[in-house]
Write a structure and sequence with these properties.
The chain is of the alpha+beta class and about 150 residues long. It has three helices and five strands. The chain has one domain. β1 and β2 form a beta hairpin.
Amino acid sequence: MDIDKQLLDESECQDLALAMQRKYSGYLNGRTFAISTRLEEPGVAVQVLLHNADDSFHYPVEARILPEEEELSVRKGCLFLIDYIDLYFEEYLTEDEDLFIPIDWANYQYEAVDFQMRGQILNLKVETMADQLLRSTEDSSKSASH
């Protein structure tokens, strides 16, 4: 199979995440990057996740593109999106951690290439605790009603 028609493999994603880790090491405060790519018919999507060990900070930034419409290969489309997200994180981490992208898909254009992005900072640790509390409350009320 032609390499330009493939998504980035796991090893390439890990290498790119490690490069971002090194680049922003002074700004991460215990957070780490992870990168993934996926086919999303008819295009491709990437996710660059910045998170800490307990997931009390979980910031997935996603982008998607129609590579053929932009005259890019699948692979180059993925790399383009990762490069743009890297530019976003550079500004976010080094200048303004109050700089956010929309929660819902929003249209962007960079170097005459159209794509979409979205992102939302989550506290998965608190969400998990809340889910557990709700389940235990539901279980208690079910057993009390019997």
